[in-house]
Amino acid sequence: MEQDQKYLPQEPLEIPAHLNQSLEQSSKHSYAVQTLLSWSAPGRPFQKRTKEYFLNILVIALLFEIILFLFGQYFLMALILALIFLAYTLNTVPPHPYHYKITTEGLQVEDDFFLWQELYDFYFKKQNGEMTLVLGTKTFLPGELVVVIGEMHPEHVRDIILPYLPYREVVKPTFMDKAAHFLEKNFPLDRQHHTHS
Fold it and tell me: In this structure, are residues 52 and 191 in contact, taking their beta carbons and an 8 Å threshold?
């Protein structure tokens, strides 16, 4: 009988108090979401434009409107007017500051949260004089998240994100990027901005 009891399951031994506490703490820390970096910056790259910029846009738009009117393309005329209004709004109304947070789980932009599993890679790009962090998404929409990093140094942000996403060092400009650069260089809408850049 005593020999049979030797092979029966024994009562679990009590874990010493100091080991039990360390196990509890490690289990809490392993699942806790940690904030790695947080900052506030404008919601989008913004650059104040001169009157010359808007005047040039109006002249170009007016030429297009006349051509489209002659061909009876009224829908395209309305579309151009809508794009002019959008350009005017984006270049006159400064964006309100957003709060950004990089955590061990992903990126938080105000109330929106993007998990690392939903993101593909990242790189940095200067837009309208602002340094931005561009994160590729695995889904078609939005495709890319553009985050203004404000006063944060790009290398510091890169070192924090590297354990979670691959860094794209060389970014080939798209056809639209090349076209925009060509137009900006050869037909500047804002001469004052063109001389400063």
Answer: yes
Span 94-127, pLDDT tens digits: 889 999 999 999 999 999 999 999 999 999 999 8
Residue 126, helix vs strand vs coil: strand
CA-nearest of 142, 168, 141 to 154 is 168
CB–CB of 181/197 below 8 Å? no
- Rounded Cα distance between 8 and 127, Å, is 71
Q: Reduced to 3 states, what is the DSSP secondary structure of residue 145?
A: strand
The candidate with the shortest Cα–Cα distance to 90, out of 47, 148, 40, is 47
What is the CATH code for 35-170?
2.30.29
- Residue 23 CA to residue 78 CA, distance in Å, equals 66
pLDDT per residue as tens digits for the range 46-77? 877 888 888 888 888 899 999 999 999 999 99
* Domains in the chain: boundaries: 35-170
Q: Using CA atoms, how far apart are residues 124 and 3, in angstroms rounded to an integer?
A: 71
CA dihedral sign, ordered 65, 66, 68, 73: positive
From 169, 173, 174, select the one nearest 155 (Cα to Cα): 169
CA distances for 122 relative to 33, 125, 179, 194, angstroms = 21, 10, 23, 28
Long-range contacts of 58-65 (CB under 8 A, 24+ apart): 58/84
Residues across the chain: 197
pTM: 0.65
